[in-house]
Design goal:
The chain is an all-alpha fold. The protein has 8 helices and no strands. The longest helix is centred in the middle third of the chain and has 30 residues.
Length: 189
C-alpha cells in the first residue's frame, strides 16, 4: 500500500474529506481545544489555586457540577473524538495520515477506558475493588493527571498531522483531494 492514500471520490466521506474537509477539520479542532481548555482550567484549579479535587470542576462544571461527574458526558466526548478522528482520516495523505492514525489508535484505547468507566456506572459494580469506577491506567495514575496525559498523547499527533497536512510535500499535495490542499500560484492569478 502506498504511503500516500487518496480519500474516496464519492458519497458522504468523499464530501467530508474533499470540499468540506477544511470546515470539518476546523470544527473538530474547535471542539478538541474547548475540551482541552476545560481540562487545563481544572488542572489550574487543583495545582495553582490549590482547590480540592471535588471542587475543581473546570469552567462548565462550576455552573453544572453534574457534568464533571457524569460518565455519560465523558464517554460521549470520547466517542465524538473517536468518530471525528475516524471520519476525517481519509482526507489525510502521507505523513499527515500516519500521524492522524497514531492519534486515532491512542483515542481508541482512551475510548475503551471510558467505556469501562461507563459500564461500571451502569452495572453499579466497580472493577479492581475500587471505591469508585476505575479505568485500567487509573490504577497507576490519578484521574485528573491521567486525562491530561491522554488528551496530550492524542492531541500532539493530531497537531503534527495537521502541520503536515497544511504543509504537504509535492507528492502529498498531488494526492490530496480536500479543500485544505495548497493551490499552485498560477491558479491564484
Amino acid at each position: 500500500m502506498s504511503a500516500v492514500a487518496a480519500p474516496p471520490r464519492s458519497g458522504f466521506l468523499a464530501s467530508l474529506n474533499g470540499r468540506h474537509h477544511r470546515a470539518a477539520l476546523n470544527t473538530f479542532m474547535v471542539i478538541v481545544i474547548a475540551h482541552w481548555a476545560e481540562h487545563l482550567v481544572q488542572a489550574y484549579q487543583i495545582f495553582v489555586l490549590d482547590m480540592p479535587r471535588p471542587a475543581s470542576r473546570g469552567v462548565l462544571g462550576q455552573f453544572w457540577p453534574w457534568l464533571v461527574t457524569s460518565e455519560y458526558l465523558h464517554y460521549g466526548y470520547a466517542i465524538v473524538m473517536l468518530v471525528g478522528l475516524f471520519l476525517l482520516r481519509p482526507g489525510f495523505v502521507g505523513r499527515a495520515r500516519t500521524w492522524w492514525t497514531i492519534a486515532l489508535a491512542i483515542q481508541f484505547w482512551h475510548h475503551i477506558e471510558h467505556l469501562l468507566l461507563l459500564i461500571q456506572v451502569q452495572a453499579g459494580f466497580n472493577l479492581f475493588g475500587a471505591a469508585v469506577p476505575t479505568s485500567v491506567l487509573q490504577l497507576v495514575m490519578p484521574r485528573v493527571e491521567l486525562h491530561l496525559f491522554y488528551n496530550s498523547i492524542v492531541f500532539i499527533p493530531m497537531l503534527v498531522a495537521v502541520y503536515y497536512h497544511l504543509r504537504p510535500s509535492r507528492v502529498e499535495a498531488e494526492a490530496m483531494r480536500c479543500s485544505c490542499a495548497p493551490r499552485p500560484l498560477a491558479s491564484l492569478a
